[in-house]
Amino acid sequence: MRRAGAADILDIAIRNKAFRGADGGLLAAIDEVAFAVPAGSFTTLIGPSGCGKTTTLRIVLGLDTDFVGHVTLPGATPRVAAVFQEPRLLPWRTVEENVRLALPPELEGTDPTDLFAILGLDTMRSRFPGELSLGLARRAALARAFAVEPSLILLDEPFVSLDEMTASRLRALLTTVWSARPTTALMVTHNLREAVELSDRIVFLTPRPATVRGIHEITTPRPARDAAWRERELAELDRLFPGVL
Ligand SMILES: Nc1ncnc2c1ncn2[C@@H]1O[C@H](COP(=O)(O)OP(=O)(O)OP(=O)(O)O)[C@@H](O)[C@H]1O
Fold it and tell me: In what residue span(s) does the ABC transporter domain sit (predicted)?
C-alpha cells in the first residue's frame, strides 16, 4: 500500500518485501525497514551488498508497489526526483533540452542558467550526452533532478565508478546545489566516507532480509567536517557498528 500525505517528512515503513524466484519460491528481501527522513535533511542508507537498498528506493519511487507497509512522501504535492548510477539522459537531446524536458508544466520556461552555473555546466548546455564524461553526465543528471524543484530527491550510488578526484568534486557540487536548493534527500551508497561527508543521518541496514541495524545522527556542520573529523567519526562508527568499515 502507498499513500502520499501532506507531512513534510519522508516516512518509510516497509514491513515485508519478497520476490518470487524463477523456481516459484519466495526470496525475502526486506524484513522490516522503518525510518523517517526529516524535512530538508540529507539521509543516507548504507548496508551490505544485496541487502535491499535499491529495493527500498524503488518502493519509495513507486516503481514497486508489491510490498507490505506504507510510504508517506514529503510535501503537500509530492514531487520526487531520482539520480541513478547511470545518468539516463536522452542521447539525442542536448544537456539543456534534457533538463527542460523534465520540467513539470508549472515550471515550464524556467531559466536553468543558475543551476548550470552552480554545477559548473555553463559551457556544456548545448552538448549531447555522448560528448560528456561520466562525471559531467552525472552533473547533468543532478541538474535535471534539482531543476524540477523536488520535495524529495533520491540518489542511488550517484558517485560510483568515478575516480576519487571526480567523485570528490561531485560530492562538493552536490553539497553546494543542495544548500542552494534545499530539499529532503535520501541517498544509497556503499561508501561510508561519502556518507559521513554528506549526511545528517545514516541508516544502517542488516544483511538481507533487511532490518534497520541502527541510525546515526551527525550534527557537525558540513564545513567543519575536515579530514581529522572524518577519521574520528569513522572510528566512532566502527565502534558503534562493528564491521561497517
Ligand atoms: N526483480 C527481482 N527479482 C528477484 N530478486 C530480486 C529482484 N530485485 C532484487 N532482488 C533480490 O533482492 C535482494 C535485494 O536487492 P537490492 O538490489 O535491493 O539490494 P542492494 O542492497 O541494493 O544491493 P547492492 O548493494 O548490491 O546494489 C537481492 O538478493 C536481489 O538479488
Answer: 14-232
Spatial separation of the C-alpha atoms in residues 28 and 80, rounded to whole Å: 27
Share of the chain above pLDDT 70, in %: 97
**The complex's ipTM?**
0.97
Report d(CA 216, CA 117) in Å as an integer: 33
Q: How many structural domains compose the chain?
A: 1
48: exposed, middle or buried (Cβ count in 10 Å: 0-12, 13-18, 19+): middle
* pTM for the structure as a whole: 0.93
Tens of pLDDT, residue by residue over 137-160, are 999 999 999 999 999 999 999 998
The answer as to whether 21 is a domain residue is yes
The CATH number linked to 20 is: 3.40.50.300
Whether omega before 74 lies within 30 degrees of 0, making that bond cis, reads no
C-alpha cell read off for 33: 525497514
Q: Which atom from ligand 1 is nearest to the alpha carbon of 51?
A: 21
